[in-house]
Prior knowledge:
Blueprint: H1 3-6, H2 9-15, E1 49-52, H3 66-75, E2 80-82, E3 88-90, E4 95-100, E5 103-107, H4 122-134, E6 145-152, E7 155-160, E8 192-197, E9 200-205, E10 217-222, H5 226-235, E11 240-243, E12 256-270, H6 280-289, H7 292-299, E13 304-306, H8 329-338, E14 345-351, H9 355-369, E15 374-380, H10 383-391, E16 397-403, H11 411-414, H12 430-439, H13 445-455, E17 458-470, E18 474-475, E19 493-494
Parallel strand pairs: 1-10, 14-15, 14-16
Antiparallel strand pairs: 2-3, 4-5, 5-7, 6-7, 8-9, 9-10, 11-17, 12-16, 12-17, 13-17, 18-19
Helix pairs in contact: 6-8, 7-9, 12-13
Amino acid sequence: MKTKSILILLCVALFASVFTACSSENPSKEPETQPKNISTIPKDNTSFKLCYTQSDSLNPYKCETQNNQILSQLVFESLFSIDDNYKASCNIAEKYEYTNSKTLRVTIPGDLTFSDNTSLTADDITYSFRNAVKSNYWGSSLSGISSCYAVSSSVVDFQLEYPNSYAQNLLIFPIMSESSETSDYPVGSGRYYFAEENEKTVLKANDKSGFSPYFTTIHLENIPASDSIDNAVNIGSVSLTFRDLSRDSSKKIDSNYKLVNINNLVYIGINNKKGLGANSYIRKAINSAIDRDILANSAYAGFAKTASSVFNPDFELSTTEIFEASSDANAAKQAMLQSGLSDFSISLLVNGTNADRVACAKLIEQQLEAVGFNVRLSVSDTYESYEKRIQKEDFDLYLGEIKITPDMSLRHFFSTKGSAHFGIDPKKSISADEYNKYTDGEAELGSFLISFSEEMPFIPVLYRQGMICFSKEMNGDMQGTGTDCFKNIENWYFKSE
């Protein structure tokens, strides 16, 4: 395909400074825009409102709802922060280093405290890690870390399951005070803390570290239903909410919004072991036949980015495109001819409970038939039946979605323990072998990308985005990201009446 251009990535690998310690200066940090006439903007302890689920825990490791997980971004800090380009920067961490290929050492300042003035030490970090690993929300993203232990009160070592120069990207789980484990209001070191006011739960600004927002109190509204949340932000009864756009992406939005990256990959899984999918030319033909631009703009209403590489297009290892955004019918037909086959009947499985994915599957069906495939679309009635068929490898093709961890690990596809390896034999896959060599430091990234484009074990289609919806009355240059919806909340304020 674009074999020569892929080799350019070899230079990227040589200059990637993934082993360096954090610096007090971050040149990639976005400039914070301060509002004009600062002195004329009063403090506000009544106007800003967020939704939460009263029946759910406020503990970041126990809560099950998106509502309360979003609140945790304000109350708890993490060792590192990542931006929309998946670049890590120190947050609680002061510095980090790889003491060997499978040990990441993180140092924190010795004078850190939680919002209740108790000390934040390495023991709180190891406690938080143990609980995050067991949680439904954070557990899968930490599967690449086997354990951690406190070397001293300010140093923690993380043991990795495999060599991973982007392991710091995984350390974005919330750090919570171990002493507040049984409290209704768990304690963190974040910008706000949980409190009670007039017998209601609120968030109060934590001003110990110089944090001085205009919104000194944030009021919480018990709105658990997603439809009610969307309506609440549209009419302004809550000030901000996050939508992951996992379904119904075309639903009308009346509020202001900002798209953010959430690293959810929509892909075509292929049964490499039997049927048409066992032929590499057929897999390449399918890749050439699909039009990623149409899928992103039509099925996902423009709330997605086409996959130009195996990795997220905003990640630093995706600087060279190896997939076309539009279809190439001639290349698809040529690959079908090279396959030596004459019958191009193939099935495509999709989860029928997700309207966006069904719409995407129907477009893929049309695009494949346009180059000569005879597609039988199989729409499952339930997610359980869809998942069962995939696990039994009862498919030719399936349209899937997976949340890629922030370190961009592809072991979901290339490990027998991976949740997306079905249809791929990791022990026989050339791509899997080259990927393991790359992560082990035995091969260059370009070698893996070349082998992937030749083998095409699965087809990356697009990366969905999420959306921060916020009141039209809010000022302050919204800079929120997928992992921190409130990135520069200290600069937000409402327009004067």
